[in-house]
Each structure stands twice: as C-alpha cells, then as structure tokens.
Amino acid sequence: MLYHVSMDIMEAKKILAEVKTDLRTVLPAHAFTWVSELDVAGVENNTFNLITIRALAPQIIRQNYYQKIKESLKKITNIDYDFSVVYDEDFAKKYQSDVKKGNKKKSVSMLSNEETKKELLKENLAQMQSAANLNLKYKFENFVVGENSEFTYALAQNVAKNPAQKYNPLFIYGAAGLGKTHLMQAIGHYIVFNKPELKVRYVQTEEYVNELIKSIQKSSDRNQKMEAFRRKYRSVDVLLIDDIQFIEAKDATIDNIFHTFDYLLNKNKQIVVTSDRIPADIPGLPARLQSRFEKGIVTDITPPGFETRVAILKNLAEQEGLDLDFSVAEYIANNFVNNVRELEGAYNKVSAYAAFSNSKITLELAKKILKCDEKKNEVTMDIVAEKTAEYFGVTIEDFKSPARAQKISNPRQIAVYLSREILGASFEQIAEFFKKKHPTMLYSYEKIKKDITADEHLANCIKEITRKIKG
User: Fold this and answer.
1) 262 with 113: CB under 8 angstroms?
2) What's the total number of domains in the chain?
C-alpha cells in the first residue's frame, strides 16, 4: 500500500510515540490497546495518516477515542492536527509473521517495552474480537430504554458488569425485532472492552447446529472435529447464543447443547440466551434443558410504546447529526408499532431518500416515501381471519369464542398459521387477537406446519385461502 508523505516519516513516528506515552496515562489498559499498535504511514494536509493491524480499530478509535488522540496531538505539537486510521492488511501480516517468529522488536510506534501480562491481554483482546463475532453497532449506549425493556436492560447491564455472579443463565425472550440481539451483543461488547481477560463468543443457534452436524458427520477425522467443536464452545467465559427456538429437537443436538451448558455452568461461566418464546413453549425442548434455561432468570422485551418509539427515532437521527421534527417522528411512530426493526427500517428509508435527494426530512417527505395511508388497505389479521372463516363457513366471533368443536378449532388453527406465515405476527399478537393463551397459539401453528407436509388436502386449502387473502 502506497502513501504520500509530506512530513519526514521519522519525525512523524517520533510524535506518535510521544502521543502514545501521553495517552498511556490517560486511557485505561483495554482502551490503550487500540492506540498502542498504530503506526504512521505519513502526514498530509495537516492529517496524520495512521495504519493499524486490527480490522476493527478504525471504527472503535473513531467512535471512542478520536477526541483524546486529537487533544494529545495538539498537546505534543502545538498544532491542531487531524488524523485518520485505516486497516493495512500488509502491515497486519508482517506483524503476525514477526509474532510467530518470536520477533518482539517492533518499531518505535509499537509497544516494545510492554510487560508480558499486557502483551497477553492485547493478543487475547484481538483474538476475542475475531472470535466473538459481534456487531459493533449493538452497544448499551445506543439502546433506547423504554417501559417495554427497562427491567431486561437492567439485568443485561448487571450481567455485563458481573458475569456469572447472579443471573446465570440470562434468558431473554420476545418477538422478532424488539432488541434481544442488541442487548445480548451489548453484554458481549461491554465485557470485551472492560474485562479483556474474559473470552466471549456470540453464535446464532442455526450456525451452532450446522457446525455440530459437520463435526459429527462420518469421516476419518471425525473425533478430532468433534473435539475441536467442544473446545470452541467450552473454552469461553461468556457464551451468547441467539434464537434458541431454532434448535433441532434431535438427540445429538439436544445432548450436545445440554452438556455444553452444563459444563459452562459448572465452571461458573456466563450464558446468555435469546428466544422468541419462553423455554416451556419451545417445541421438542426436553425438561432437563428447560430447567437449565430457567435456572437463572427469564425476562422479556415487549413492543415499545409510543413514547419509546419516538425516542428511538430521535436517537437514530441524533446519530446522524440530524434534528428530527416531532411531526415526522410522530407519523412514523404511529404507523410502525410492532417492533424496533421495522421502525428503524422506516426511518432509514426516509433518511436515505433525503440524503440522496439533498432535501430535509419533512412530514410531507415521510408520507410520500412510506405511503402509510395506502398500506392501511393491505392485509391485516382481521382480513386473514375473515377470509379463513368465510372459507369454512364460520365467523371471526367463533374463532374468538371458547368453542372447541372441530369445525371451529381446525379453521382457527389454520387462521393462526396464516397470521404467522403471511403477516409475520408474533404469537403474543395472535393470542391477543384470537383471545387465547400464547401456548395455544404456538401449538396451533406448529400443528398446521407439521400437518401441511403430509396432508395434500390441507395444503390445497391453505393455498386457496392465501390466494383469497392476497386477492
């Protein structure tokens, strides 16, 4: 990689070394790690062009330590320099090669005199960042707390600050798009940056299951693969496992995850789990695993109220340096009520259009882009229930009644299935509409989902009703 240099490179390196010495006394050890491995590529137009061996460093430094480094540069040089940080793959490869060869004589910009403990922490932090698989945008600082998430947020912070001390496992459940993954990864980030001696790993259940299947497939090195898999998930201090409802109810899968959880809990390691339902409602989940999930604390996140939705939108705008007019926030918040994901999606759509067209975000623009009034004529749960009831010669009132007769219960189960499949409605929303309990709606959905694969007549009925619903 070539860089244009307009200041003597050795002079620039000397300045950076002094900046590091200055920052070592200001920044905590975990923060200084990101600064310690910076090197100078050159100085151009009053800007220090810095390179790093860590792919995450540019974003982390920009978000967390930008002002501190600028202040230190000015303090050392008495000039208001700016700086940029880029990840240099060649620089990173050379560094890794030097480490493997045991070459500890790094350039003046590197930590040549670090104590062994700090060197190990530095390497461990880099290793965790790669293995943890965390999305940097999911932090406690940008999670908007509302009445729907206040208790769960407090629990998550407690776990982040005191892993494996009290709430273990932490089981967070709620419908899709409400912030479960955000809070889970926020726990991981807090620990990575504040407790770098701990190893964190985030994994989606589907990914975990796929890895397990590959490791147990018959092959000459099957035993080695299985041992590597066990080591990967049992050598961590904090395991974050997302969407556990997708676990396959097969003996090998259940046994493996049970023994992994049991091993970690016995070793006093923290486990955090998310799901779209409570442990008792996960199909095929055996009692022994359910009891492991419920051993710590089970907590939920519900859809955000109006005030929280407005606060989320305001926060999104602030992150972009924008002042969002309340009328726009009110319009979006009133029309996107089910979850945070669709709320953010609506804002991003309006924001992107405004940026591309070089215009302000106004109420008129939001209405033009989102077309919420037109969408009110689209499919709703009322329409799904109405078309299903018509097809079977019953009424919506029958669906909402306590009646258990087959001529009502079967069509009701189909309406529940279609509400989930077509609308993506949560089981809580479906239960509220049909005036039934959440587990009953879950059972209805799972039953039809299973039956449709073997019952051609049922499959045809559902296709016909779907056609009527969608017009």
Assistant:
1) no
2) 4
Q: Do the Cβ atoms of 72 and 23 come closer than 8 Å?
A: yes
Q: Indicate whether 121 belongs to any domain.
A: no
Residue 29 lies in a domain: yes
**323 and 424 both lie in a single domain:** no
Residues 339 and 288 in one domain: no
- Residues with Cβ within 8 Å of residue 283, at least 6 apart in sequence: 249, 442, 446
What whole-number distance in Å separates Cα of residue 78 and Cα of residue 81? Answer: 9
- Residue whose entry in the numeric block shows the structure tokens 């994994």: 203
CA-to-CA dists, residue 291 to 175, 262, 269, 288, 296, angstroms: 22, 11, 17, 5, 9
Q: 204 has which bridge partners? A: 242
Q: What is the pLDDT of residue 95?
A: 58
Mark whether 228 and 322 lie in a shared domain: no
Tell whether 219 and 275 lie within a shared domain: yes
Tens-digit pLDDT profile for residues 116-143: 444 444 444 444 555 577 876 788 988 9
The Cα-based distances of 396 to 183, 277, 441 in angstroms read 38, 26, 15
Q: Same structural domain for residues 358 and 425?
A: no
What global pTM score does this model have? Answer: 0.59
Distance separating alpha carbons of residues 466 and 213, to the nearest angstrom: 35
Q: Is the dihedral of CA 108, 192, 242, 426 positive or negative?
A: negative
Stretch 8-32: mean pLDDT: 85
